Amino acid sequence: MELRIAAKTDADAIIAFDHIAASDPARVQFIHNQIKSGACYIAMIDANVVAYAVLNYKFYDNGWIEMLYVHPRFRCQGIGSALIRHLMNECRTPKLFTSTNQSNVPMQRLLATLGFDRSGFIENLDEGDPEWVYFKRLRDHAT
Ligand SMILES: CC(C)(COP(=O)(O)OP(=O)(O)OC[C@H]1O[C@@H](n2cnc3c(N)ncnc32)[C@H](O)[C@@H]1OP(=O)(O)O)[C@@H](O)C(=O)NCCC(=O)NCCS
Which domain holds residue 9? Predict the structure, then answer.
């Protein structure tokens, strides 16, 4: 598996497997914007894009994984975990945050497996499905 920053030419492949992009132009725009700003990372197997993730610093200036999405046919093979581990190495701040819905058990288990701790929750985003914020300390001080 190859993990690298996405290039403009990877956008169509990402959009093809992200089921939200199929019906939501805002998601397509999000993908283009994140690629343009160098925040989008991809996992590739046999020259095919099989997952993408977005790492930016919008969360109170801390590392923030805004997105992780694995191609449905490639789930439960360790690809999501590998991409998050890669972002843990790439992150420029000592603290890394992300969030997911309470209903998203796969993502919560993945984060627990990688040593992320819960850091509170936000209500009133998705009705009846709180958003849990997760946190991982990568190192003691900024280097
Ligand atoms: C959540 C998601 C990213 C997981 O990616 P993945 O590549 O399938 O995850 P991995 O194979 O690395 O799994 C790592 C751990 O996560 C947990 N996990 C993953 N899929 C799971 C599932 N369907 N049910 C329960 N636990 C699951 C397990 O603990 C697993 O460890 P194990 O293999 O030792 O049991 C993937 O299901 C996905 O893309 N979902 C849609 C988008 C999404 O919800 N993104 C996250 C919120 S932004």
Answer: 2-137
Does residue 46 lie in a domain region? yes
Which candidate, 65, 6, 3, places its Cα nearest to that of 31?
6
Q: Which of 64, 67, 81 to mutate to test the pocket of ligand 1 (most atoms within 8 A of CB)?
A: 81
With a Cβ cut-off of 6 Å, ligand 1 is lined by 67-70, 75-81, 100, 104-107, 109-110, 113
Token code pair at residue 60: 């109170």
Of all protein residues, the one whose alpha carbon is nearest to atom 14 of ligand 1 is 110
- Tens of pLDDT along the chain (143 residues) come to 999 999 999 999 999 999 999 999 999 999 999 999 999 999 999 999 999 999 999 999 999 999 999 999 999 999 999 999 999 999 999 999 999 999 999 999 999 999 999 999 999 999 999 999 999 999 876 54
pTM here?
0.95
- Establish if 143 belongs to a structural domain: no
**131, part of any domain:** yes
Let me know if residue 142 belongs to a domain: no
- Whether the Cβ atoms of residue 43 and residue 1 lie closer than 8 Å to each other: yes
